[in-house]
Amino acid sequence: MPPSFPRPTAYLEAMLHFTFDNSYARLPDRFYARLGPTPVAAPGLIAVNEGLAARLGLDAAVLAAPEGVAMLAGNATPPGAEPLAQAYAGHQFGNWVPQLGDGRAILLGEIVAPDGARFDLQLKGAGPTPFSRRGDGRAGLGPVIREYLVSEAMHALGVPTTRALAAVTTGEEIQRETPLPGAVLARVATSHLRVGTFQFFAARQDTEALRLLTDQAIARHYPQADGPLGLLHAAVAAQGRLVAQWMALGFIHGVMNTDNAHVGGLTIDYGPCAFMDDYHPARVFSSIDRFGRYAYQNQPQIAVWNMAQLASCLLPLIAPEREAAIEAATEAVNAFAAAYEGAWLDRFRAKIGLTTADEGDADLIQSLLGRMTTLGADFTRTFRGLATGQARAEFTEAEAWDTWATDWQARLAREGRTVADAQALALTVNPAIIPRNHRIEEAIAAALTGDYAPFHRLNAALAAPFTLRDGDEDLTLPPRPEEAVRTTFCGT
Ligand code: AMP
Ligand code: MG
């Protein structure tokens, strides 16, 4: 029998109509440890995501009520939940770690939304688990605010991602370099299946578990995929498209370990991530990434490496004969390049307003990026400026823009389109508002004093990143030199 969990209150039972169907909890015991969240001293609401609550068929007002907040903090368990911590392994910065697992996250269950779509509901920062190693199982207010803002911004930007249903404070202090207020993020995702989940079982030569995991991944992400090889092809293609989207937004994930590589092609784990201000392809933010392994420009190669790890896990399922399995798996991993490059070109063509493909397009785009690198032009403002006619101002030497724009206009003419046509398209794909690091830091600093207004303001602006609302102009500005944040920290 599983240990006893905090019971759902009658209120939650009556008011919150969770429809849980916990397919992961039906997998064998070795996939997880069954346990509930550890209750906290004094739950306090930071935010409930109304749009996401509605998507899930949940009542945001009930979530925001004291009983709902208690549930979001882990002090009450919603009806139908079967809480557990998932087992996984992973390569961290290239080093093999045979056992990681949810050290501070509890999967409450899988919500089946009114339209039948299935979502994990997980509490991150919910207390220690058998996978915590030396950690306390908790999350700090700063990292919770960062993940809420950035994951929801990614969603609004059209990038597949885990999402934030709610954030609450715990009323407890956690010990980091300094004492910090504790918080819990209610994370929602179409699954939490990582490359590292496959690695956990592959390392134990548990072919039966790999088979079950393959079925689960196909059911949840790629219902059209045919068997393990089909899964691999689909995961590789999804990863290629995902990384192309990151690149087209100037996003640096920062910790692309295989335990943070999602088999369904979602962005997961918003620890030391950042959107670039001034463009440089070698940019790194994470203070723990000392060798720049996860620099902006390295992301596609790292994604391939991660996919090769997934492929190697699936080998015993792909074909009985090892040589044949390796050949098929290699071909699948090699398909990353085409998926990534195709998606990268599509995204960047649209960013400069092109609707057709021309052989010289990659060079034209690289020429712009090269000028931006040399002059340190702001990534987001340059592309937004291209759409609004103000890009020239982003270059400290205007000639760099002018000479590029001449080539660009010639290319547009070949397509039979005007600059205005191109700008109209570019306006729909080049955001005005991204979660700039200094703004996130500002929201966190205010939250630490109990003022959540900057968090709510930024969050509201990020929900519509392609529309600049009156009064939000300051959110489009790059940091002043004294505001620039050069490193972010791991979210622990
Ligand atoms: P991350 O760097 O967030 O991807 O986490 C890597 C591993 O460390 C995962 O197994 C996490 O569950 C675990 N971990 C991170 N922070 C904590 C913490 N405060 N307590 C326990 N485990 C943690
Ligand atoms: Mg992680």
What does this protein structure show overall?
- This protein is of the alpha+beta class and 492 residues long.
- Among the domains are: 10-192, no CATH class; 346-429, no CATH class.
- Helix content is 43%, strand content 13%.
- It contains 16 helices and twelve strands.
- It has helices at residues 10-15, 50-56, 60-64, 66-73, 141-156, 195-203, 207-221, 227-249, 299-318, 322-351, 361-375, 379-388, 398-414, 419-429, 437-448, 453-462; strands at 32-34, 44-48, 84-86, 90-92, 95-97, 105-112, 118-124, 139-140, 163-175, 179-189, 251-252, 274-275.
- Strands 2, 6, 7, 8, 9 and 10 form a six-stranded antiparallel β-sheet that branches. The protein has a two-stranded antiparallel sheet with strand order 1-3. The chain has a two-stranded antiparallel sheet with strand order 4-5.
- A hairpin with a 5-residue loop joins strand 6 and strand 7 (118-124).
- Helix 9 (299-318) packs antiparallel against helix 10.
- The longest helix is centred in the last third of the chain and has 30 residues, at 322-351.
- It is globular and about 65 Å long.
- It starts with 9 loop residues before the first helix and ends in a 30-residue tail after the last helix.
- The protein binds adenosine monophosphate (AMP) and magnesium ion.
- Adenosine monophosphate (AMP) is lined by residues 100-104, 131-132, 135-138, 259-260, 269, 271, 490-492.
- Magnesium ion is lined by residues 259-260, 269.
